[in-house]
Design goal:
Blueprint: H1 2-10, H2 14-22, H3 24-34, H4 37-57, H5 68-106, H6 117-130, E1 136-143, H7 146-153, H8 155-169, E2 174-181, E3 184-190, H9 193-208, E4 210-212, E5 218-220, E6 223-229, H10 237-252, E7 258-260, H11 264-287, E8 290-297, E9 307-316, E10 322-323, H12 326-334, H13 338-355, H14 357-360, E11 363-370, H15 372-375, H16 380-391, E12 398-403, H17 411-424, E13 427-433, H18 439-445, E14 450-453, H19 455-460
Parallel strand pairs: 6-7, 9-11, 11-12, 12-13, 13-14
Antiparallel strand pairs: 1-3, 1-6, 2-3, 4-5, 8-9, 9-10
Helix pairs in contact: 1-2, 3-4, 3-5, 4-5, 7-8, 10-11, 11-12, 13-16
Length: about 475
């Protein structure tokens, strides 16, 4: 460019020569903002020297320097420009360094130093687009009941556990080890079946033994490990992580909580079918396509005790079809939707009883099911109290049945809710006793008025006829 400016100047094209000569300045600005520090520091002296030569020679119609004072003045101006360029370059460099640091922090987990969920998603997206890693499996490890563990050992100790676990996982021959969330880790491993099985089994065994997270504290932890094949049909990070979470859910239910899912696409299809059923359930509740039925309860020994019945729910299908409740209720439990269903059943039952006040006067007891989710849900007691107030139903005739086949998450809230319901005048029954998770523990922990023993036990008893 300097040669071109000189050539134009010699040919009498002074205007163009000057324009080209002074184009050094925007080039300098571009260099300051984009070049590396080493490149900039190397080229700035070259730029200054070229400009001094142009001024001494009078090339490109640059003002000719013909005195020592003029030369000093020019050098001072160039020094000012170079110092300003250095200052701007330094600020630009620090800015870019900070931006790079922020970018790294955005994909880096601050606790363990591993990649976080953003980094994992970016890696999966890139891998899917490149259609690589076909001979690898995506693996997830989850510490079971991590929130309870953190409450038990303390926040600092729980952080120590995660740091130690991250160090342990880095020993594996893995790719893109990431901390998805608290107590949850994901990575890729080569799908060499025998070696893969050995590493996963060794990892599971070592972590379920005493795990050291501090110099003075030892705490055994329980983990679940699941893996899925990295298939081409998993065409988004969301599908990969959804299939993997489904596989972990399978692993959690196994005695030895390790599961290798052979068909990840099947898990996605199952999840999508589950979501479709959930949409059907929400639509049924919204459109009132739920039907209530009464199942009579009779005493074989004292039939004169009066009419008793349990309220059951059914779903209205197309036409006159009635759909059994079990599949959709299981979906409601999966998505935490049982409080919505139970609240609807309570209000509709009370409304019907109020409309049939004369017949209800002959009833001794009306039983309504409450799921474990509903029992500890917010607003339950207020909803029931409002229904009693709006429909004027005799409180002593209402019995709420707590199913024993479902885990009650918060014992304190459940105990308080049962006590409050009994204080309202309602009866409380334990349903399906003997089939669930904590039969005698529930009897010890909560106050029940009735016990409904599962029919399979009664049928085998010699006095079951009475």
């Amino acid at each position: 460019m300097a040669s071109l400016s000189v050539l134009l100047s010699l040919q009498g094209q002074s205007l163009y020569a000057t324009l080209i000569a002074y184009s050094f300045f925007p080039l300098l600005c571009w260099l300051v903002f984009s070049a590396t520090r080493a490149t900039l520091f190397a080229l700035l002296p070259v730029f200054a020297m070229a400009f001094v030569i142009f001024a001494l020679r009078g090339w490109a119609d640059v003002q000719l320097i013909n005195s020592f004072d003029g030369l000093v003045k020019l050098l001072l101006q160039l020094a000012s420009v170079i110092l300003m360029a250095h200052l701007v370059a330094t600020l630009t460099f620090e800015r870019n360094r900070l931006l790079d640091g922020f970018k790294r922090q955005a994909v880096r987990d601050h606790l363990t130093g591993l990649q976080n969920d953003r980094g994992l998603n970016a890696f999966l997206q890139k891998t899917i687009e490149q259609q690589s890693m076909h001979d690898y499996r995506l693996v997830q490890l989850e510490i079971l009941d991590f929130d309870d563990l953190r409450l038990r050992v303390g926040f600092d100790a729980a952080c120590d556990i995660e740091r130690a676990l991250a160090q342990r996982l880095q020993i594996l021959d893995s790719i893109q080890l990431s901390r998805l969330s608290a107590g949850s880790y994901i990575w890729l491993m080569s799908d060499k079946t025998q070696l893969f099985d050995q590493e996963i089994e060794a990892l599971y065994t070592s972590l379920n033994e005493t795990f050291i997270e501090g110099s003075e504290l030892q705490q055994p932890i329980q983990v679940a490990i699941a893996s899925i094949p990295f298939e081409l049909k998993l065409d988004s990070p969301m599908k990969c992580l959804t299939a993997l979470s489904q596989a972990v859910a399978v692993a959690r239910r196994l005695p030895r909580r390790v599961w290798q899912e052979p068909n990840a696409v099947r898990l996605i299809e199952q999840r999508e079918a589950l979501i479709d059923q959930f949409d059907r359930l929400k639509k049924a509740v919204r459109q009132g396509n739920l039907k209530l039925y009464a199942q009579a309860i009779r005493s074989l020994r004292h039939p004169e005790e009066g009419l008793m019945f349990e309220v059951l729910i059914r779903f209205q299908g197309d036409g006159d079809d009635v759909i059994p409740p079990a599949p959709l209720l299981n979906v409601a439990k999966t998505f935490g939707y049982m409080p919505v269903v139970d609240f609807w059943v309570i209000e509709e039952t009370f409304k019907y009883l109020a409309e049939q006040a004369e017949q209800f006067s002959l009833v001794k007891r009306c039983s309504i099911n409450l799921s474990g989710q509903t029992l500890v849900s917010a607003g339950l007691l207020e909803h029931i109290e409002r229904c009693f107030r709006d429909y004027s139903v005799d409180r002593h005739k209402i019995c709420f049945e707590i199913t024993e086949t479902e885990v009650i998450e918060d014992e304190e809230i459940a105990t308080s809710a049962i006590s409050a319901l009994r204080a309202m005048g309602c009866k409380i029954a334990l349903d399906d006793f003997g089939t669930g998770l904590a039969s005698f523990e529930y009897l010890y922990r909560y106050s029940f008025d009735y016990l409904k023993i599962d029919g399979r036990f009664c049928q085998k008893h010699p006095d079951a006829s009475g």
